[in-house]
């Protein structure tokens, strides 16, 4: 049997290797290894920071929060220091927005009214988030009679318009109207939306392989819910909570405008100022316009942020863009 010829004896079998500098395709084939692990939240943050709407809403919200926490940085005038001698006077030095019917500085009242609106909004979303998350998580994950009882309880509260319910509650508790009471009146009837969304998301997630593997390894159902199911289901709730903050601020202003919100003599509120200025809409529209603009800008900032967060946490929306 003849021995095979080597490459030296047969030049056609020689293997030619081009120099590295002559193969630019190597740069294309290079793989970049990143140290950080990609997650839903990291991808969402990478997407949000590329969108101008996120930065616009972030600036608005940051400004609102700073004004709410430190109103004296923006005005030194006492909003409750009113004099009928300045009633409905036009803007002057140190008073850029003029005076209202009671002779109060409008600019100072708008600045100090920010704290009330933000406090009510934050209190409402904390209450809504906590109650809605607990109810939705228990109903969606454990199912059975737990789901039946909690879902029917949510249907009862969901069937009642929360503004109407808040009007009734604030009318009954008229002697104890404060930020906590008005937040409780709004939040107690607005949590079913959060609970429904979280329940539906948990029903989708709880049959995943990693959830069944966690239970198979001996982890209790409650720990599985807290460690695995809830973190992977909470994204839609974050979006709803962000949007609910703007709705809570509007609800507080609405109740104050209707006269069943915060007492005008004790709390500074944009709703109270709008309600007081409605009788002068024809003669002094600016008295109503200024607090309305502050309310609109604040609500718009949170709505814009909610829209950006919603799109960032939705992979399908990112793919469409």
Describe the structure.
The protein is mainly alpha-helical. Helices cover 62% and strands 0% of the residues. The chain has helices at residues 25-29, 40-48, 52-69, 106-142, 144-158, 162-172, 179-187, 191-205, 209-216, 221-229, 235-257, 270-277, 286-312, 315-320. α4 (106-142) packs across α7. 36% of the residues are buried.
Residue share in helices? 55-70%
Largest sheet: none
* Uncertain residue ranges: 26-33
Strand and helix order: HHHHHHHHHHHHHH
In total, the number of strands is: 0
Strand coverage percent: under 5%
Arithmetic mean of pLDDT? 82
Global morphology: elongated
Tally of helical runs = 14
Taking all Cα atoms into account, the compactness measure Rg is: 30 Å
Structural class by sheet pairing and helices: mainly alpha
Task: Measure the end-to-end span.
Answer: 67 Å
InterPro entries: BP-dependent_transpt_permease (IPR050366), MetI-like (IPR000515), MetI-like_sf (IPR035906), OppC_N (IPR025966)
Main location: membrane
Family: Belongs to the binding-protein-dependent transport system permease family.
Subcellular location: Cell membrane
């Amino acid at each position: 049997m003849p021995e095979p010829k080597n490459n030296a004896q047969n030049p056609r079998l020689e293997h030619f290797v081009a120099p590295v500098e002559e193969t630019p395709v190597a740069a294309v084939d290079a793989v970049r290894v990143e140290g950080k692990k990609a997650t839903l939240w990291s991808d969402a943050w990478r997407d949000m920071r590329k969108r101008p709407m996120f930065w616009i809403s972030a600036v608005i919200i940051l400004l609102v929060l700073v004004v709410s926490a430190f109103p004296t940085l923006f005005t030194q005038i006492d909003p409750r220091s009113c004099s009928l001698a300045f009633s409905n006077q036009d803007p002057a030095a140190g008073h850029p927005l003029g005076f209202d019917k009671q002779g109060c500085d409008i600019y100072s009242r708008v600045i100090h009214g920010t704290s009330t609106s933000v406090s009510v909004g934050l209190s409402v979303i904390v209450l809504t988030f906590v109650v809605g998350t607990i109810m939705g998580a228990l109903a969606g994950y454990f199912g059975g009679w737990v789901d039946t009882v909690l879902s029917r309880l949510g249907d009862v509260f969901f069937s009642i318009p929360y503004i109407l319910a808040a009007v009734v509650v604030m009318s009954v508790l008229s002697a104890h109207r404060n930020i906590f009471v008005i937040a409780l009146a709004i939040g107690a009837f607005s949590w079913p939306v959060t609970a429904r969304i979280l329940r539906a998301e948990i029903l989708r997630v709880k049959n995943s392989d990693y959830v069944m593997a966690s239970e198979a390894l001996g982890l209790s159902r409650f720990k599985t819910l807290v460690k695995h199911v809830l973190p992977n289901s909470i994204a839609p709730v974050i979006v709803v909570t962000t949007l609910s903050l703007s709705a809570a601020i509007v609800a507080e202003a609405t109740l104050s405008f209707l006269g069943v919100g915060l007492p005008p003599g004790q709390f500074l509120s944009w709703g109270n100022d709008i309600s007081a200025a409605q009788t002068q809409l024809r003669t002094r529209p600016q008295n109503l316009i200024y607090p309305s603009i502050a309310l609109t800008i604040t609500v718009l900032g949170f709505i814009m942020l909610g829209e950006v967060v919603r799109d960032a946490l939705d992979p399908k929306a990112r793919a469409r863009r």
